[in-house]
């Protein structure tokens, strides 16, 4: 499957160095190694358009969780968390300088391979000069919507308006509809995107194929609460009910990290269960956890509806982003990762191709390869053709599936036989061995 979404075909592939040298009969060629891949599928390496390894850029980390699910290229910084964004924050907060000073840095980053300009709505916007630099470079505006709940449509309109004004392609990060009862809302949002595409605006989005998201503990509360505002139970309950988000859903929000052995009983437990053990209201238990664990403690929210996820995946402009960092399979005793870090791409095929039949297998391959490469201008990636980089995934179509769960997330998927990055074999399921490619391939 060459990544273009067309019919599969049988042929030989020859690799020389980092590139695909021939697509066709290779029986006349000498080779150092031959791989018999009959009964398997060869596809372009998967492109994760919403990775978050930039959060751990200077920490010891492993690419194992990404390679094991077939990811060969990752786009980082989609939530405005890149080094450039940190420079912009310094300019806004400390030096109080004009954001136009970021434009030269942006121009330099684009020359070094940056493939999008991230905008986090609700925070100070990029300067007009920075927007012009990005537009001239032809890179997309990557939008982190202000709201993905009841105000999804106004938030989407806000992003579309900026893209229309700047005449830039628009890509929406982790597009979803959380904590909502209006089952028609996602379809209305998709219709608005289709309308813009019909008018000629390039619009795309990404999502991860799970019904649970992660959010820091501090995001449960209004900012004043984190700063130590009045915390009596009546006030706290009023604040939560005013947000109209959680209601009786405290059983669907669980703690994913603790600081030490003393708090291990809280790891993986829902706030509802923690509140019951402590004989507190869920609101009061959440306040205690805020004081004990800190505002950055990750929580898992089962906040999405799988029918909505399937509806978004059915749109031809939707691709996959794990929304997580590349992680090791060596589990942290004080941290439960999201299973998306180990199984986002295999889950697409197991759940939404084979089980729900939302996509054909060929179309799912396109969403994981050629489509994201086109959106972000990743030259010579995302397709099998002569001259392209040899980023390849050899897989068993019938077995491909994720195995991680919310309770045991760090589990390798099945069905991925081999992964090649720039022509080098970096993962093999049969032996379970991971070989790091040896250098950072693309630091965008």
Task: Sum up the structure in keywords.
444 residues; alpha/beta; TIM Barrel; five-stranded antiparallel β-sheet; five-stranded parallel β-sheet; 14 helices; 17 strands; 31% helix; 16% strand; disordered C terminus
How would you describe what is shown here?
With 444 residues, the protein is of the alpha/beta class. Among the domains are: 71-213 and 302-375, Metal-dependent hydrolases (TIM Barrel, Alpha-Beta Barrel), CATH 3.20.20.140; 215-301, no CATH class. Helices cover 31% and strands 16% of the residues. The chain has helices at 64-67, 83-95, 102-111, 128-137, 152-166, 185-198, 223-226, 233-243, 271-278, 282-293, 306-313, 340-355, 361-368, 370-375; strands at 13-16, 19-23, 41-44, 46-51, 71-76, 117-120, 141-144, 170-172, 203-207, 213-216, 253-255, 298-301, 318-320, 392-395, 416-421, 424-428, 433-434. The strands form five sheets. Strands 3-14-15-16-17 form a five-stranded antiparallel β-sheet, with no helix packed on it. Helix 5 runs parallel beside helix 6 (185-198) and helix 9 (271-278) crosses helix 10. The longest helix has 16 residues, at 340-355.
């Amino acid at each position: 499957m060459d990544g273009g979404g067309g019919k599969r075909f049988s042929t030989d592939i020859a690799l020389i160095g980092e590139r695909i040298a021939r697509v066709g009969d290779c029986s006349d060629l000498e080779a150092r190694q031959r791989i018999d891949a009959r009964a398997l599928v060869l596809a372009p390496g998967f492109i994760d358009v919403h990775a978050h390894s930039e959060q751990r850029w200077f920490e010891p980390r492993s690419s194992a969780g990404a390679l094991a699910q077939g990811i060969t290229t990752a786009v980082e910084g989609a939530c405005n968390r890149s080094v450039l964004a940190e420079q912009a924050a310094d300019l806004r907060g400390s030096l109080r300088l004009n954001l136009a000073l970021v434009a030269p840095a942006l121009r330099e980053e684009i020359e070094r391979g940056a493939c999008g300009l991230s905008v986090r709505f609700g925070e100070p916007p990029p300067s007009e000069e920075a927007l012009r630099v990005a537009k001239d470079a032809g890179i997309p505006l990557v939008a982190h919507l202000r709201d993905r709940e009841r105000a999804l449509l106004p938030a989407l309109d806000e992003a579309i308006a900026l893209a229309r004004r700047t005449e830039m392609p628009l890509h929406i990060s982790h597009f979803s509809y959380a904590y909502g009862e209006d089952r028609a809302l996602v379809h209305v949002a998709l219709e608005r995107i289709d309308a813009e595409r019909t008018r000629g605006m390039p619009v795309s989005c990404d999502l991860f194929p799970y019904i649970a998201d992660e959010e820091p503990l501090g995001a449960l509360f209004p900012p004043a609460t984190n700063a130590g505002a009045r915390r009596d139970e009546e006030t706290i309950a009023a604040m939560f009910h005013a947000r109209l988000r959680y209601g009786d859903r405290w059983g669907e929000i669980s703690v994913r990290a603790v600081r030490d052995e003393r708090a291990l009983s809280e790891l993986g437990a829902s706030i509802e269960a923690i509140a019951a053990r402590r004989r507190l209201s869920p609101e009061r238990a959440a306040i205690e956890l805020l004081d004990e664990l800190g505002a950055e403690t990750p929580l898992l929210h089962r906040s999405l509806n799988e029918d909505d996820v399937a509806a978004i995946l059915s749109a031809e402009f939707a691709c996959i982003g794990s929304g997580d960092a590349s992680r090791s399979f060596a589990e942290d005793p004080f941290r439960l990762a999201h299973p998306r870090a180990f199984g986002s791409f295999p889950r697409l095929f197991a759940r939404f191709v084979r089980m729900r039949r939302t996509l054909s297998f060929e179309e799912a391959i396109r969403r994981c390869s050629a489509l994201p490469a086109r959106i972000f201008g990743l030259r010579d990636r995302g397709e099998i053709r002569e001259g392209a980089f040899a980023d390849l995934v050899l897989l068993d179509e019938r077995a491909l599936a994720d195995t991680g769960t919310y309770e045991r997330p760090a589990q390798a998927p099945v069905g991925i036989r081999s992964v090649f990055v720039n022509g080098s074999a970096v993962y093999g399921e049969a032996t379970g061995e991971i070989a790091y490619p040896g250098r950072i391939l693309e630091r965008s």
